[in-house]
Amino acid sequence: MISPKKANATRIFFMPPIKAILRLIALGIASTFMIGGEAQAGYPDKPIRLIIPFAAGGPSDVLGRSVGQRLSVLTGQPVLVENKPGAGTNLAADFVAKSPADGYTLLLMMVGTQAINEAMYPKLSYSTLKDFAPVSLVASSSLALVANPELPAKNLKEVIAYAKANPGKLNYATSGAGTPLHMGGELLNNLAGIKIVHVPYKGAAPALNDVLGGQVQLAMVGTPSVLQYLKTGKLVGIGVTSPKRSPNAPEVPTIAETIPGYEVELVYAVVAPTGTPKPIISYLNSQLAKALENPEVKERLAGQGFDIRLSTPDQLGSYIRSELKKWEPIVKESGVKPE
Prior knowledge:
By secondary structure, the chain is α/β, with parallel strands linked by helices. The chain has helices spanning 4-13, 17-41, 59-75, 90-97, 111-120, 128-131, 156-165, 180-192, 204-212, 227-232, 278-292, 295-303, 313-334; strands at 48-52, 79-83, 105-110, 132-147, 171-174, 197-200, 218-222, 236-240, 265-273, 307-308. Strands 1, 2, 3, 4, 5, 6, 7, 8, 9 and 10 form a 10-stranded mixed sheet that branches.
């Protein structure tokens, strides 16, 4: 007769195979989580590079450095902001797309610019959809259509009427061909059935100088860059391109109030090279949200005309796809070519 103690030992020794397998699986899963947790806990253990595809000193640079400074505090590692302007932002995008997918090189992407570049450049060295892993939306700002006070038209309806009565005689300046500002003007032409002639400049400052001087009647520029001129009456606000009026210039109507469905925003997002581990993407997403919810960061960015925009990685991916679909026909119809 087997004693109870031996019986128990026998039952354990002859455990049905399925239970043994399940126990081994459970142990394997637990060890996997431990390994993943250690890997995520170890990130970051060196400086992170945030690449900005625009020159230092502009609104994009202010946004990137504000986010980078706060991320440094949250992650415990320096976030090195590097400006890599050139080739219509393609230089920076190509650099990040070809960087190691380890979470240490990130791109502050202006989503509309990347979508426009996909349609405008026949042979890009990277793919926005294939080569970048979405992390999070971070902020947006509107554009503004402004006019020299000498222009007889003082609102959008009057601008449209003037353009129809004087075909080819009305011009608008932007900071360059193929930019979201240029495409914003072309979208206005398309939806309003008019033809305001585009005059590209190498930057917003020279474009505004010529509108202030009366050499060009209109300009499509970032709203933050014209706030001081609107307040002093040196420029007339014809319309902002966002769905809602800008809190920094609430007296200027939206273009959509006259042309329903019109919407153009400068929307910024952070992306990483494709293949970056999902735990790192999730970590960066949560830290970006914390950085942008910081009161000092929010106040600084609001003063620059930015609205905070947060998202999940999947939501950002959907937004990028929608922008690619939106801008392709507009770019093709405009006939714009890379400079």
